[in-house]
Write a structure and sequence with these properties.
Keywords: Calcium, Disulfide bond, Lectin, Metal-binding, Signal, Sushi. This protein has 187 residues and is an alpha+beta fold. The protein contains 2 helices and 12 strands. The longest helix has 20 residues.
Length: 187
């Protein structure tokens, strides 16, 4: 028995047991599901939340879900790093400003009218009523008039499931009459 134990009897044992329990509790708190405590506490504070989105937070991970009628662009989550900063690019929730707006195209084939491209039906099955289709021609085009200016951050195109040979590499996206190419087309 140590000198402390002989002088204070049972009290020294109780203090040692309490200290052991505190050390165990601290060790358990430092590892939650194998992650450092810095990654699960509030060192990063409340994460930024995109407009028109809801936050779902689990420890160090903040996941975003867009409100009804909006679509997520970018990665759905960011992470709290041990240094106290949120890492990852904040996504954004956008809405389709082109849906049901006036359209036009260079030619029409097999019932693939220009309005089929922005009627809100996102199916990839073309039965003559659901997709837009032009004749085979040197420079086919399709256009939509948004009727007013909008800040466009993303352009999304869904192609027919049957046509794997359609190449996005040959597609130009232009805005206004200046024919400015919209950069960063995902391939």
């Amino acid at each position: 028995m140590s000198e402390l134990g002989r002088r204070h009897g049972r009290r020294a044992t109780t203090v040692a047991a309490v200290l052991a329990a505190v050390v165990w509790s601290l060790a358990a708190a430092m590892s939650v599901n194998g992650q450092d405590a810095a990654a699960t506490d509030d060192t990063c504070g409340h994460p930024p939340v995109p407009v028109n989105a809801k936050l779902v937070r689990q420890g160090a991970k903040a996941t975003f879900v867009c409100d009804e009628g909006y679509r997520l662009f970018g990665t759905e989550s960011i992470t709290c790093s041990p240094n106290g900063a949120w890492t990852g690019d904040l996504p954004f929730c956008g809405t389709n400003v082109a849906v049901h707006k006036p359209t036009n195209q260079s030619t029409t084939a097999r019932g693939g009218n220009s309005g089929n491209a922005n009627d809100g039906d996102s199916t990839t099955v073309h039965d003559g009523r659901r997709c837009t289709e032009t004749l085979k021609e040197p420079s086919p085009w399709w256009s939509v008039d948004l009727l007013q200016p909008y800040p466009v951050r993303a352009v999304s195109i869904t192609t027919r499931g049957c046509c794997v040979n359609w190449s996005k590499h040959s597609t130009d996206f232009r805005q206004d009459l200046n024919e400015i190419l919209i950069p960063n087309l995902e391939k």
